[in-house]
Amino acid sequence: xxxxxIEKIPSVLTGVDVLVRDDFALLRGANIGLVTNHxxxxxxxxxxxxxxxxxxxxxxxxxxxxxxxxxxxxxxxVADGSxxxxxxxxxxxxxxxxxxxxEQLAGIDTLVFDVxxxxxxxxTYLSTLGHCLLAAAEHKLRxxxxxxxxxxxxxxxEGPLADESRLSFTAFHPxxxxxxxxxxxxxxxxxxxxxxxxxxxxxxxxxWKRSDWxxxxxxxxxNPSPNLRSLTAAILYPGVAIGxxxxxSVGRGTDAPFELFGAPFIDARAFxxxxxxxxxxGVRFVPTHFTPTASKFAGEVCGGVQIVVxxxxxxxxxxxxxxxxxxxxxxxxxEWQASKYLTLLASRxxxxxxxxxxxxxxxxxxxxxxxxxxxxxxxHFLLYE
Length: 385
Known about the structure:
Largest sheet: 7 strands, mixed
CATH superfamily of the largest domain: Uncharacterised protein PF07075, DUF1343
Order of helices and strands: HEHEEEEHEEEHEHEHEEHHHHH
Number of domains: 2
Number of helices: 11
Distance between the termini: 38 Å
CATH class of the largest domain: Alpha Beta
Strand order of the largest sheet: 3-4-2-1-5-6-9
C-alpha cells in the first residue's frame, strides 16, 4: 500500500502562516497588541498568541478578544482577564467596550488582527475589526491584518446594503449582507471609505482563490463561534440568521444551529411544502420537529424545517432567508413577529417590501442598483483572483 506523504497535502497559507514563514520580519522590533481568538491558529495548530509571544524581536504586550472571548467559548458579554499560558492581560472588546481603550494601548505601537470571519455583514468579528481600525487611526498605531479566507468563497455578493442610519455592532459599514470579501479586503475598503489616516498592512493569504470554499483550503475547520459548527451552517448563515431577533428558533440549543428553523406555532409540513414549491436554487426543506435545550423556545417543541444544501454552487443564501420570511408572512401573519427582522436586515426599504408581501423578484429590485454600485466599489479592494 502506498504511503501518503503528509508534506505534499496542499494547504493555503493564512496571513499568520506567511508571517511565520518570513520569520516575523514584518513585526520585528514592534510592541504589539493582538486582537485574536481561538480561530487565530497557524496551519500547524499553534495559536497566533503563542507564535507571536515566542517570536524573536517581537514584544507582545496585550491581548484583545472579540465576541465569544479569546478562546471562543463564551456566548454572552466577555470579561477582562489574563491569559493563563502567557500571563498577558486580556481585554474584552465585546460588552461595554468595542475598541481598545487608551490606557490599554500604552506602550503599543502596532495592533495585529487575526480572527476568522464567516462572510456575513452581521457577524460581529467584522465590527471588532472596524472599531480596532478606528482606534489605530486615532492613536496613530500601525494596523496589521493577518488575512484569512472567506469560508463561503469570495464570489457571492448578495442582499440589501445596511442603511447609514442603521449602522450598529451588527452592521458596521453600509455593505450587503453577503459581501464576498476577506477581512483584509474589508479593512482596506473601510479605511478608504471613511478616509482614515491609518498605517494599514494586510498580510495576504497565499494559495487561496476567490472561488475556493473552506474545504478546498486544506486548513483545519475551527468553529468560529459556539453555534457555527460546520461549513454547511456557514453557507446558510447569511440568510437563516436574519430572523434571529424575531420569535423564531434558528436551531440554537440543538445539534444543528442554522440548519434548523422553526417555532411552536409552525406546521412543519405546511411550511416545508410552501418553501419547496418555490424551487429555490441549491436547497430543499425537510419538515421536522425539534426541541431546543437552550436559547429561544428552550424545552418547547418547534415545528419547522431542516434546510438541506443540495448544490452550494447555486444556493443564494440571502434569498433563501428572505423567501423563508415571505413564507412566514404568507402562513403566519398574526403569529410571526416580523418587526425585529429589521434588526439584522438593516434596510428600511427591504423591510417595507417584506411587509408589503412583495414576491422576491420584485423585492430584490429595491436594492439592485445599490448592490451594483457596491460591486463596483468592492472591485478596487480585492486582493485575490
